[in-house]
Amino acid sequence: MTTTRPNIVFIMADDHAANAISCYGSGLNATPHIDRLAHEGMRLDHCYVTNSICTPSRASILTGTYNHVNGVTTLATHLDNRLPNVARHLRASGYQTGMFGKWHLGEGKEHEPSGFDAWSVLPGQGDYFDPVMIDAEGPKVEPGYASDIITDKTIDFLEARDPDRPFFVMCHHKAPHRPFVPHPRYRDLYVEDLPVPDTYDDDYSNRASAAELAKMRIRRDMTYEDLGLIQPEGGDEIGEAQRSENGFVGRKVPDPEDVSGLVLIDKDTGENFTFATRRELDLFKYQRYIKRYLRTIAGIDDNVGRLLDYLDANGLSQDTIVIYTSDQGFFLGEHGWFDKRFMYEESLQMPFVIRYPRAIKAGAISKRIASNVDFAPTFLDYAGLPMPSYMQGVSLRPLLEDKAGEDWQEVAYHRYWMHKDYYHNAFAHYGVRDSRYKLIYWYNEALDQPGAFDGDEPPEWELFDCLEDPSEMFNLSNDPAYREVFLAMLTKLDAKMAEVGDVPEHDSAALRAGLEASSR
Ligand code: CA
Fold first, then answer.
1. What is the number of domains present in the chain?
2. Tens digit of pLDDT for each residue in 138-162?
3. For residue 50, is it within any domain?
């Protein structure tokens, strides 16, 4: 038994769905290097994000707090770097700390990384090729491909370390975030078509109105750039403009009734594509999307392999905790969607695999509830540091070491604030997920959130039995047979909101009174 404090390598991708990691069993692709962490360590099956979008998730990971506490509720609310964070605690206790890759918590003196001895980050979303990266000296162009560069920087940090002190390094990939740009070396992967998800043609019946109204559909909301196609010159006739608060972004590939005149052109090869039917065009878009996405993942997986090889070659693997995760999940054609934001499972679930040979049994799988607010407390626990009182998560150490008792946390809490945002028209909501059920309240109000817009949709509830209905196709919130389950989940939601100090938009007392009156 060693008394040395463990090193921590935290590798996080941006928008990497569990269904695109082979150890999670979807069969879509092969990720042998990420899988290695699961086979030599543990895979979590119920790890959930508190707010399924980039910036807020990152704030929760660093601070161990929910977004109504850290103030980072949307993409436009950047982290105040005077707040304490896990890197600061680790650094103060003697850890060497590094942060490389996608930061997405703001730039400039008030938002740049704090608590890190060394850092180099992409501004905003950053670019895939020859990205500008910012460090303490300022911005600089880095030639190459983002996933390779970010890994190189992480390895350079490890090379330059003081071998007598432990290290904590965050290796944050930009990939596979939209527009899903793979390195050309992966161009020949996935020649054969991939399977189309069972729920691809979902008509969104039996669900809250948010599902139907979201602009996240592969068949009508992906841009030419998303699909690696040349965008012709022209106006609305070549595709609906996608605008953000900063202006014009790009045009969507059209979804016309009559596809006979449509010619799409591959950006790399110049190949022309024409279509006999609207369905053919629809499935063409899905295949373009999923293949680009998985090729981009292949670039991450190879780089995870490089990093693991470095740890092996330098005798670090036994004493280093290595984590691979993503800032949230992603839809890969389930319900006809790409993107995230929603509390539906594909978006809510964070893939999470962790290896630490000294404490975590190889090949273990946990079905217990975990959340990204738990990451910071976990790092501190393994570093032998107390959890500061401002943090709201719990250390996952009992779960990881198979010692979690009956009193382990029952639910994960999620809240998305950007009501009807420019791009995706996703609706604001909150809710809880326990090991079987999920309760969602669509309060459908902007509540003065940046990038959120009021509408007139009434509030709605959704209840899913994730065991019987893992695809979440049947909202049971009005089903009398599930009334007791609904009330039990409502109790859990109220308790969790009270525990974390978030303010409910729903009125539980009125709801309960109404349900009792109707059952009499
Ligand atoms: Ca993300």
1. 2
2. 999 999 999 999 999 999 999 999 9
3. no
